[in-house]
Design a protein that fits this description.
Strand content: 35-45%
Structural class: alpha+beta
Shape: elongated
Largest sheet: 5 strands, mixed
Number of helices: 1
Strand order of the largest sheet: 3-2-1-4-5
Number of strands: 5
Order of helices and strands: EEEHEE
Radius of gyration: 13 Å
Length: 77
Amino acid sequence: MDMDRTERVVYHVVPAQPGGWNVKQDNSGKALGTHKSRTQAILQARDLALAQTYSLLVVHDREGKVEKEYNYGRRPG
């Protein structure tokens, strides 16, 4: 196993049911946070992404389509 190979951690801000916004991480079935406003969800997701060496924040619109992507850090090696 190559320990120098860090996988990119991907966080998503997605619409929640019945309302509000969820922060989710790829390959995780549960929400890391639920917020009334999208801005609050984006701020939490950004903080999570910044804590990683290499990450991506994907912000979705109310219909679930990708609206913006933010890259943080860089792939080591």
